[in-house]
Amino acid sequence: MVTDKIDDIIKNQFNKTLDGTNFSSLGELYKGKVRDNYIKGDTRIIIATDRLSAFDRVITTIPFKGQMLNQISSFWFEKTKNLVKNHIIAIPDPNVAVVHQCEMIPVEMIVRAYITGTAWRSYVKGEMTSGIVLPSGLKKNQKLNDIILTPSTKAESGHDIYISRDTILEDKIVDKDIYLQMEEAAVKLFKFGQDYCNKNGLILVDTKYEFGLKDGELLLIDEIHTQDSSRFWKLESYEERFENDEEPEILDKEIFRGWLMETYPNIFPNIKPNQDIPPISSEIKIELAKRYMKSYQKITGLEFKAEVIDVIERIVNNLKKANYL
Description:
Layout: H1 2-13, E1 28-31, E2 35-40, E3 43-48, E4 51-54, E5 57-61, H2 65-80, E6 88-93, E7 96-100, E8 103-104, E9 107-115, H3 117-124, E10 142-149, E11 152-153, H4 165-170, H5 176-199, E12 202-214, E13 217-221, E14 230-234, H6 235-243, H7 254-263, H8 282-300, H9 311-321
Antiparallel strand pairs: 1-2, 2-3, 3-7, 4-5, 6-7, 8-12, 9-10, 9-11, 9-12, 12-13, 12-14
Helix pairs in contact: 1-8, 2-8
């Protein structure tokens, strides 16, 4: 009954998902794949929409996704603010973050504890990821002996490109002192996230961090340890599934990527920039929303209260209350 009720709530939210916003008075609009950013002076207002991206394309919208992403991020930003400074100023609405405007560093720090995803696909082709040579004989989803950093360039559009530490430093893409701070911060944040998730029955498999500079100081920006930027597996069943060559229980958007490749193998993962998006089933949208809710609850210890709502109306009311509109 509870499952049926949640399914119904998610279905009823399908035509109320937040596909995008248009608040010209908030500042200059920059649309990312998932977030709408409004920039005015030294402040940026980020609105997390329900858009879902995969393979560098926005594919569909998922009910409550933006709210969960923003709330998960704000949870982690609060938990880690004493480890690494971040850009948060205020959270006036479940979908909205008011942050410091920073000079974005054009390199993402991707931290991995297991061989899976893009790194696995490169590994089976005999290719390196970010110049790192991994030991031979690894199996898919195997835990690595130590965490690795596989930085990538931050692309404006299309695929991000993996890049080695040596290239970043030799080509002076990032100042050496700043880059070393980024490495240290990424490892610190990831180890904290691993320990925290472990206590809550989750494995933080890998994640990405983005950084910016404000008055020369390094700040963590964008998002942290969300189901969009990270992989989460259920801890309890991992070992048994790995031994039996079965996929782990996934609590992030990787199941959606898998569904796309299985359902439309001639389109994904190599969908072209202007290619039409094929139909997305209601079943996979509901399943993904439920998995996001499950990981949200496991991470935060809080129940996600899903209710059918006009998200834009609530955002407008909350931004007015906080004097942003």
